[in-house]
Amino acid sequence: RGKVRKIIQEKLNEGKVLHFSLFDPDKVNLESIYSIALKLVESGTSGFLIGGTLGVSKEKLDSIIEILEDFEVPKIIFPSNVNLITEKADAILFMSLLNSDDIYYITGAQLIAAPIIKKLKLESLPTGYIIVGHGGTAAHVGKARVIPYDNVELIVAYSIMAELFGMDFVYLEAGSGAPEPIKPSVISITKKYLENSKIIVGGGIRSEEIAKELALAGADIIVTGNIIEQNLEKALKIVKEISNIRR
Ligand code: 1GP
Predict the structure, then answer these.
(1) C-alpha separations of 24 from 4, 64, 191, 201 in Å
(2) Ligand 1 center to 121 CA (angstroms)
(3) Domains recognised in the chain with CATH numbers
(4) What is the ipTM of this complex?
(5) Other CB atoms within 10 A of residue 110 CB
(6) CA dihedral defined by 180, 186, 188, 193, rounded to 10 degrees?
């Protein structure tokens, strides 16, 4: 097993919940990213996810990872397509958009990416990506058959499927900038059905209260993106809240 997987597992074994900070290469400003990242690390963020759906390039991805190089926190690619693969990262979320209607987003892009990832010896974190509720740009581009926020039956079935496929992570995504995040009640029910796969939750998380609720409901990793750019102080509060939780 890879290094990043081990770091995540060790923290989870200690009863911690992890927070990942998402940087969208299309939105971040290269001049301010170092100081923002420093504050996030000091507040306890456990990982940097770098990726986005529109306006992203490998060059910008590389520049961001270079700026983040000094931080020991893992730098993980959150890819929307095959152009976002770089050997500079510590790992990549090797994702399949399980509720897509387009085979390209389920196994097509992954087929093209697989030999590249192997050649670069990039650590791969097998992830079932499931888009719920608002869905946002990722749902539109990924042709997701978006699952309604309250359809627990479907969310659970997709999550079990991901686990049965052997995926280490189930990423429940409400979409970047979603007006509402995934419901904590949905997370707690889904958690009961998963024995091995870890739950990543993201999309529309803007307060420490909701972040805490999601963590206590069973989310293993909480992702926040937009709030970092919109209200850094608030984002740091979320990170601190998550880092103090012990389950
Ligand atoms: C999006 O889950 C992430 O892919 C984070 O969403 O930008 O709304 O925090 P936000």
Answers:
(1) 21, 10, 28, 17
(2) 27
(3) 3-243 (3.20.20.390)
(4) 0.97
(5) 18
(6) -140
Please give all residues whose beta carbon lies within 6 A of any atom in ligand 1, as ranges.
22, 173, 176-178, 202-205, 223-227
Distance CA 121, CA 86 (A): 10
The single-letter code of the amino acid at 103 is I
- What span, in angstroms and rounded, lies between the C-alpha atoms of 201 and 175? 10
Q: Which amino acid is at 99?
A: N
- Give the nearest ligand 1 atom to 201 CA: 2
CA distance 85 to 1: 20
Measured in whole angstroms, how far is the alpha carbon of residue 85 from the centre of its chain? 16
At 22, list the tokens.
């998402």
Mutate to test the pocket of ligand 1, among 20, 80, 224, 228 (most ligand atoms within 8 A of CB): 224
Q: What tens digit of pLDDT does each residue of 16-61 get?
A: 999 999 999 999 999 999 999 999 999 999 999 999 999 888 999 9
